[in-house]
Design goal:
The complex is a heterodimer of chains A (about 400) and B (about 160).
Chain A lengths: L1 H14 L1 H20 L13 E4 L5 E7 L2 E7 L10 E2 L16 E4 L5 E8 L6 E8 L10 E2 L9 E8 L5 E7 L1 H8 L7 E8 L10 E7 L6 E4 L5 E6 L9 E6 L5 E6 L16 E4 L5 E9 L2 E9 L4 E7 L4 E9 L2 E9 L4 E8 L7 E8 L7 E5 L2 E8 L3 E6 L2
Antiparallel strand pairs in A: 1-2, 2-3, 3-4, 5-6, 6-7, 7-8, 9-10, 10-11, 11-12, 13-14, 14-15, 15-16, 17-18, 18-19, 19-20, 21-22, 22-23, 23-24, 25-26, 26-27
Helix pairs in contact in A: 1-2
Chain B lengths: L1 H16 L2 E2 L2 E6 L17 E6 L4 H16 L4 E6 L7 H6 L6 E5 L4 H8 L9 E5 L5 E5 L4 H8 L3
Parallel strand pairs in B: 2-5, 3-4, 4-5
Antiparallel strand pairs in B: 1-2, 3-6, 6-7
Classes of the chains: A mainly beta (about 400), B alpha/beta (about 160).
């Protein structure tokens, strides 16, 4: 090792001594840092946590612990938490990192539904799983696999929505059409969005339907109720030839789309995995407020805008150049956006609010942590807005928004 | 001065190599060592620093292309950086692409801090590639790069 390093260094010195010295400081620092680094856990930290207020006013949070998801509940807005309850009795692989996150919803009967992606052995593959905690029950029912397709392919990045009519709809990224094209040696852009609907509160799902071809492969899907309760999905799409913008679709009762529209027009041309999906909230007038990440004019930014018919109204950047993973919610005429932003030292949780439907905003600071942090979630309870933020050092935290 | 500089560099390289992990021969980065990954390089060899992750199919396309280019361009230096704390799956994932060269990976430092240290202008999309042409020039590119793209940026055959 030393000998080969010496040869490397000779060539470096031969090329330019001055330049070699410029390379030095980071390595020297590295050595110092290694000597003084604080002890840390060596396991990969999977912080992705789902959170929502239940119909009982409690705060529910679901996160990963080994081969299990676990539920904790709080009666007092996150100051105290219940003992954890296992979601899946039998351990299994669970994706809980970044955009690959568990999702929760409450069906019309008040049952808690938890969905997650179970990675399968082949790379990029998975199954969408769902478990139900009947209202008032002490334990979850055994989880089910949502889709009828059992091929060991991509079914991942799921989201769920419970509608007032009792339906539960799941959406996810699915590569069956990509695989079929590959088998025929035909090209296929990206993946696809599929949906499945349950009419028995999440106990079982009808066969899935395709929402759209050519989604991006690894971004979370935003899923919100229209003012009549119909699900609206917003996802990163791959528009020909390689524009990673967003598409939006309102779903029919069977999960198929009424139509699929282009939602954003930033024209980020890249074949890459941004791991940075959008968020969506619909106001009382039916206006679709969204946040999303894109590279526009060579600069990666989080944006806010109102998604119209083949147009975006009021598009503005959210936060600074490193703002990331924004979430959005609306309550009592107030529109709130929360996001995380690394400032070089700390992960910051920041927010902005609008009382005029997104025409103007005021920005505020919420929290900061030196450790790793999950994406924040914007939550609503009783007409009030909150930010939920899981942090490696601080734990599960809820912040009332101004 | 020159002697102590050389000694410090040797020590630093030996130290970083000593942090290879059980999960494969990855040298784990912290926020300080990560800063060197995209720092200006002084040597005259074309160098590619390729950020990838085991869940990123486009990354493997780039790594496979680099493995092929390396066969006809022995002067090409390849440094790969797994943007994840390695697990048992990480090494097989990169071995399968055939790419050789120095293998770095995220350590257990805060991932946001590691990403920032590598490149404050990088927003997490993968693959992310830094192309050093060996003449003082460097390009940062996101996404799939084809063989012609690598050749043009690095002056390869």
């Amino acid at each position: 090792m030393i000998k080969s390093a010496l040869i490397e260094i000779r060539s470096v010195l031969g090329a330019s001594l001055i330049a070699a010295m410029m390379v030095l400081p980071p390595y020297t620092l590295a050595h110092d840092a290694a000597m003084h680094a604080a002890p840390t856990k060596a396991a990969r930290v999977e912080l992705a946590t789902a959170a929502a207020f239940g119909p009982d006013g409690q705060l529910y949070a679901v996160s990963k612990n080994g081969g299990h998801l676990q539920l904790i509940r709080s009666h007092d807005d996150g100051n105290h938490w219940s003992a954890p309850l296992r979601v899946n009795a039998q351990p299994e692989p669970i994706a809980a990192d970044g955009d690959s996150q568990p999702r929760i919803a409450f069906n019309r009967d008040g049952d808690l539904l938890v969905s997650w992606t179970k990675p399968l052995p082949r790379p990029y593959t998975g199954e969408i799983r769902l478990a139900r905690l009947p209202a008032g029950a002490a334990a979850f029912d055994a989880p089910i696999t949502v889709h009828h397709d059992r091929a060991e392919i991509t079914h991942r990045f799921q989201n769920i929505l419970a509608s007032p009519d009792g339906r539960v709809t799941a959406v996810w990224i699915d590569k069956r059409d990509q695989e079929a094209a590959k088998a025929k040696r035909e090209p296929y852009r990206g993946a696809a969005i599929y949906a499945a609907v349950s009419t028995d509160g999440g106990r079982s799902f009808a066969p899935e339907v395709r929402v759209a071809d050519h989604s991006c492969e690894c971004c979370r899907i935003a899923f919100a109720a229209d003012r009549d309760g119909a699900p609206i999905a917003l996802w990163r799409h791959v528009f020909a030839p390689d524009e990673r913008d967003h598409a939006i679709a309102r779903l029919k009762p069977d999960g198929s789309p009424e139509r699929v529209d282009r939602a954003t027009f930033d024209r980020w041309r890249v074949d890459a995995c941004p791991h940075h999906g959008p968020a969506l909230a619909v106001d009382e007038a039916g206006t679709r407020h969204a946040t999303w990440f894109n590279v526009k004019d060579d600069e990666g930014r989080v944006f806010y805008g109102r998604i119209g018919v083949n147009t975006v109204e009021g598009q503005i950047p959210v936060g600074g150049p490193r703002a990331a993973h924004a979430d959005i919610a609306i309550a009592s005429g107030v529109l709130a956006i929360v996001w995380k932003e690394f400032d070089g030292e700390q992960n910051r949780l920041r927010g902005m609010r609008s009382t005029d439907g997104g025409r103007s905003f005021e920005t505020f600071e919420i929290a900061a942590t030196f450790g790793a942090a999950d994406q924040p979630r914007a939550l609503v309870k009783g007409g009030k807005l909150y930010a939920f933020w899981r942090q490696a050092n601080e734990g599960f935290k809820l912040y009332p928004l101004p | 001065m020159m002697k102590s500089t050389l000694a410090a560099l040797l020590l630093a390289l030996a130290t970083s190599a000593g942090e290879a992990t059980d999960a494969g021969s990855f040298t784990l980065l912290d926020r300080h060592t990560a800063r060197a990954v995209t720092a200006p390089r002084s040597d005259a060899r074309p160098t590619v620093v390729a950020l990838w992750a085991s869940d990123c199919a486009y990354c493997k396309q780039n790594l496979h292309t680099l493995a092929t280019l390396a066969k006809t361009n022995p002067q090409l230096r390849i440094v790969t950086v797994a943007a994840e704390l390695p697990t048992a799956d990480t090494r097989p994932a990169i071995d399968k692409t055939g790419v050789k060269g120095e293998r770095l990976a995220y350590g257990d430092d805060v991932p946001e801090a590691l990403a920032y240290a590598i490149d404050p202008n990088w927003r997490g999309e993968l693959p992310r590639t830094y192309l050093f042409d060996g003449k003082g020039g460097m390009q940062a590119r996101s996404g799939v790069i084809d063989a012609a793209g690598f050749k043009a940026a690095l002056g390869l055959r």
